[in-house]
Design a protein that fits this description.
The protein contains seven helices and no strands. By secondary structure, the chain is mostly helical. The protein has one domain.
Length: about 150
């Protein structure tokens, strides 16, 4: 099995987790925006009353110390995984409905007896489904290479 096929299968198997991570990141960013807005507003209120500057504001210092140092490697890994998810999502969208259904059934939403469900749905034999899976995986690899 060549490396492109291995990577495509790995991305498809992790697709559900990557999707959940993407949603969590979006929620976390919204939460962070709310925290930053509250800190900014509290520091502006103190400035108007003749209090501290935002740089000396204890709320900001507590927030910064609670966050800690950003872990560079974790951030890089998360960005790579986000890029893989977005590329996989676009590549899946570029496939036909039948190819997308086959790949998601095999790798993303695999259940017991899924092959029989696919056989009934597509009116094909098992061997034909496996051949279709191989062709769909090749199409997915090509789409992953063409999507940026």
């Amino acid at each position: 099995m060549d490396s492109a096929k291995k990577m495509a299968i790995e991305v498809l198997k992790k697709y559900r987790y990557l999707e959940a991570a993407e949603e969590n990141d979006a929620m976390e960013k919204n939460r962070e925006c709310g925290k930053n807005k509250k800190i900014f507003e509290s520091s502006r209120k103190k400035e108007r009353r003749g209090g501290d500057t935002p740089r000396d504001n204890t709320d900001v210092k507590e927030y910064a110390s609670a966050e800690g140092e950003p872990d560079f490697y974790r951030d890089v890994y998360n960005r790579i995984m986000q890029m893989r998810y977005r590329r996989a999502k676009r590549a899946l969208e570029a496939l036909t409905d039948k190819d997308r259904k086959i790949l998601t059934s095999f790798y993303v939403e695999r259940k017991n007896g899924f092959i029989f469900d696919l056989c009934d749905e597509l009116s094909c034999e098992r061997t034909t489904i496996y051949r279709m899976k191989d062709r769909a995986l090749e199409s997915f690899i090509i789409a992953m290479g063409n999507v940026y």
